[in-house]
Amino acid sequence: xxxxxxxxxxxxxxxxxxxxxxxxxxxxxxxxxxxxxxxxxxxxxxxxxxxxxxxxxxxxxxxxxxxxxxxxxxxxxxxxxxxxxxxxxxxxxxxxxxxxxxxxxxxxxxxxxxxxxxxxxxxxxxxxxxxxxx
Length: 134
Description:
By secondary structure, the chain is mainly alpha-helical.
């Protein structure tokens, strides 16, 4: 119904739900579904806004839907956390505009009473993938 409301139902199967549900809940997202390929595109960074403190379990949650015979693949796409500033404090480095825009974006999100997205460094991603057997 939500996919129809958004005008994207014609695009194929659209799955809308909450990844933070556990396997034993009747509303578990993608319950008993297995896929050859999973594309986690900017998923981890956005999870904090919708399911805070679930990021460390996300790869385990996705793995249960990946083909178990070793032929399944998961692709993780994300963004390294942006620095708070570029160059010395007050230097006006050209790269600082990115940090300033990010700060304004985060302020708008917080003023709307939502949680900001949180990026994770590639080392955190690699460590968590290993912990979940990838």
